[in-house]
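User: Can you model how adenosine-5'-triphosphate sits in this protein?
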Amino acid sequence: MSLLKLSHVSAFYGPSQALFDVHLSIDEGEVLALMGRNGMGKTTTVKVICRMLHNRGGKVLFDGQDMAGMPSYRAARAGLGLVPEGRRCFPNLTVHENLIAAARPGPWDMRAVADLFPQLEERRSQMALSLSGGEQQMLAIGRALMTNPRLLVLDEATEGLAPVVRQEIWAAIARLKREGGMSLMVIDKSLRELRGIADSAVILDKGRSVWHGAIGELTSDVTDRHLGV
Ligand code: ATP
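Assistant: Here's the modeled complex, given as C-alpha cells:
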C-alpha cells in the first residue's frame, strides 16, 4: 500500500481551478521529485497534501486514511512534515524555541538535528531572524524533522541559496534518504540534483500530472516538453 496516494485530485482558489485530475503516489521510504515549471501547481499540490487547501474533487489517502475534511494540524500529527517554500521560521523565537515548537517524540530530537546541522547547535540561543538564509533553511528542515514525520515534503529547499549552502542542503537530504527512515517529496529547480536523489518523479503541467515514473526513465524528450530544459 502507498503511504500517500492522490487520485483524480482537483483544487481551486476561489473560482479559479489550479489542479485538474492530479495523480501521485509515494511508497514507504521512497523519494519522489515533484516537478514542473513555475506556476504549474507544485505548491498547490503540497498545500492539498498538508491540508492547507482542501481538494474539491478526487481523493487524498495517507496511510490508507482519507484526508477529506482533515485540518492541517491533524495532518501534521498523522505524520506529514512540511518544509514550506520561503522557510517561514518564527522570526522572534530562538533556534531552540523554533525547534521545540512542534516537536513530537521519536528519533528526531535536538541531538539528531544538531548532528545533521551542527550550525544550528552553535546558534541555539539566537533569534531566527538573525540567521543567514541557509541557516534559516536548515532550521526549517530541522523543525519539520522534530515532528518525526513519516513523509517529509521539501518545497524549494535550496531556492535562493549560495551554491555552497545548496550543496550542504543536498547532502543533508541525501543523508535523510539513507538514514532518515521516512519518505521524501522534493520540489526543486535542479533536475541534476533531483536525478541524483529521487527514485521517481511526477511532472505537473498546467495543473495536471502529465508524467510519472522512475526518474531514470525521464528522457530529454519529456523534460524538453514539460520542463523546458
Ligand atoms: P512556483 O514554482 O512558481 O512556486 P508552482 O508550480 O508551485 O509554481 P503554484 O504556486 O501551485 O505553482 O500555482 C499554480 C497556479 O495557482 C498558478 O496559476 C498560480 O497563479 C495559482 N495560485 C497559486 N496560489 C494562488 C492563490 N493564493 N490564489 C489564487 N491563485 C493562486
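A couple of observations from the model: The domain at 1-79+152-165+185-229 is CATH 3.40.50.300 (Rossmann fold). The chain has a mean pLDDT of 94.
User: Helpful, thanks.
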